[in-house]
Amino acid sequence: MSTANDAATATSFRTATVALTCALIGIVYFGQLSADLSAGRWLWTAIIAMPLWLPLPWLIRGNRFTYAAMTLCVIPYFVLSVTEAVANPAARWWAGLCLICALALFVVLIAYLRLTRVTSSPLSRTES
Predict the structure, then answer these.
(1) Could you give the CA distance from residue 109 to residue 25 in angstroms, rounded to a whole number?
(2) Of 14, 83, 101, 120, whose CB count within 10 A is highest?
């Protein structure tokens, strides 16, 4: 990062990423558990939300590899929300919230990765 402004922007992207991840976890739990509160449904919801819970400590620390991996973890929630929006009219409001949150999380992850990428300087390159 080149300036203090970039560092402040990266910190705000990290904060937004953690907030959106927690929001997506909450939306998934609320949407899955709103119909039924059985033990099997709790287990299924925990399994569905696991890809969001596991990398959360490394997201808080700002590990770039975790941010890159999270871009792949968000895609199933995007697919789930589009599928629910099309196939289940009763869950369209939940699917819409999940879709917006998953898309926003994906955009913020990519923005953070682009802002914090390491570029090689022209002086460090060797010419053959």
Answers:
(1) 16
(2) 101
Sign of CA dihedral 77, 63, 53, 101: negative
Long-range CB pairs of 55-61, under 8 A, 24+ apart, other chains included: 56/18, 56/21, 56/22, 59/14, 59/17, 59/18, 59/21, 60/14, 60/18
Q: Are 84 and 98 in contact (CB under 8 A)?
A: yes
Domain boundaries, the chain: 4-115
Dihedral angle over CA of 29, 32, 37, 41, nearest 10: -100
Q: What angle do CA 30, 103, 108 make, to 5 degrees?
A: 110
Burial per residue of 64-92, b for 16 or more beta-carbon CB atoms within 10 angstroms, e otherwise: eebbebbeebbeebbebbeebbeeeeebe
**pTM as predicted:** 0.82
Closest alpha carbon to 106 in 79, 81, 72: 72
